[in-house]
Hints:
3-stranded mixed beta sheet
Amino acid sequence: MGAYYDEVEIEDMAWDDEKRVYHYPCPCGDRFEISKKQLKDYEDIATCPSCSLIIRVIYDPLDFEDESSDDDDEDAVEEADEEEESDEGSGDEAFEDAMEHLTITDEKPQTIAAAA
């Protein structure tokens, strides 16, 4: 990776509970951001959404290894909501129809010759 604007320890960053990211002030007036999921995935680059500057976050990846990320929890909730909004049982009905037409026999399969 190219040059970092700075290297910042995770302890010097602030947690934003609303946006669910760690942040650190950027000289442009915005702030560098990195999520717990990124840290858990061994990503150590925090980006500023307003400019091209990046910083390297110094942290111990083992601190985030066992932690369930908030992004994963939010994704699971959103997926559950989407499933509830979709037609309930539409996928189950297709599965039930396939099971109704399934036949299991003890007959040996016949060998069919195919031309190459």
